[in-house]
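Hi all, posting the design record for the shared folder.

TITLE: backbone redesign
STEP: 1 of 1
STRUCTURE INPUT:
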């Protein structure tokens, strides 16, 4: 079983230091096999914000944690127009990682991160055809027993983001991107961006979307909350590509605590969910 902590939208520059420290302590205590951070490490892509993000990532690495990190739209300068279009992710490459599409593989999982942040959009994302080819090629040789996980900052699908259920914009070139993910056999698609926790089967969102389970993470440490949803991140227990659990770990004002625990199973056609009423304490194996 792979134990994965999925954090997103850290937003150094618009963060709460207490919550950053609490998230760090939780990760150091529970020691996931991998920490995934799906973009927006900074608020405005300024040097001091990237330095703070880099120091935090180095602290996690020093604790022996493995990381897979991708950029988000906030990691591209907004007001520095020259840098925005001439060198949009240079600071990210310098302080965070030169690899914008990282790969991780072990005996249980194969994970590809794709950069969806673009200079020409303020907040929307896009996957280009070269990335779609990479998606297919990377997963092609992966053993069928492994869980294939795709990580993006912007979700592939339109998401319900408001109290009234209004939908967000889907990632650019949505139809082609969804087809590529389906052809690659992606089992889990992780993203952030909207500061909202959400999980749903892809087939229930878009026809012919493949068999992926779509998992959104809220903002882990930012003070920029939406719909009064508190800071949170996801704690995934991936047993097999057709069986997993999601625990949502939520900031309660004093620390991070489990707020929900749901088991998902794929029956060959669709994902079914079940609340784990008497589940284990956070970090333990069911």
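Okay, here is what came back for every position:
SEQUENCE:
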């Amino acid at each position: 079983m792979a134990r994965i902590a999925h954090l997103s939208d850290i937003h150094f520059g618009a963060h709460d230091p207490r919550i950053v420290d609490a998230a760090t302590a939780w990760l150091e205590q529970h020691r996931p096999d991998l920490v995934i951070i799906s973009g927006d490490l900074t608020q405005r892509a300024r040097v001091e914000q990237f330095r703070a993000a880099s120091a935090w990532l180095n602290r996690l690495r020093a604790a022996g944690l493995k990381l897979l990190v991708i950029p988000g739209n906030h990691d591209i300068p907004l007001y520095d127009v020259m840098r925005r279009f001439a060198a949009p992710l240079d600071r990210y490459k310098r302080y965070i990682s030169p690899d914008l599409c990282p790969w991780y593989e072990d005996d249980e999982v194969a994970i590809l991160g794709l950069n969806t942040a673009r200079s020409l959009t303020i907040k929307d994302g896009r996957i280009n055809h070269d990335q779609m080819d990479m998606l297919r090629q990377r997963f092609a040789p992966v053993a069928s027993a492994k869980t294939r996980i795709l990580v993006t900052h912007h979700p592939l699908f339109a998401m319900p983001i408001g109290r009234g259920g209004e939908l967000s914009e889907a990632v650019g070139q949505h139809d082609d991107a969804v087809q590529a993910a389906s052809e690659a056999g992606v089992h889990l698609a992780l993203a952030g961006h909207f500061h909202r926790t959400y999980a749903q089967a892809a087939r229930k969102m878009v026809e012919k979307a493949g068999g992926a389970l779509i998992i959104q993470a809220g903002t882990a440490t930012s003070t920029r909350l939406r719909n009064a949803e508190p800071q949170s991140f996801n704690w995934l227990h991936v047993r097999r590509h057709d069986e997993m659990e999601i625990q949502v770990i939520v900031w309660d004002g004093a620390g991070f605590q489990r707020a929900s625990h749901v088991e998902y199973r794929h029956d060959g056609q669709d994902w079914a969910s079940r609340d784990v009423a008497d589940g284990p304490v956070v970090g333990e194996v069911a």
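COMMENT: The mean pLDDT is 87.
Let me know if anyone wants the other runs.
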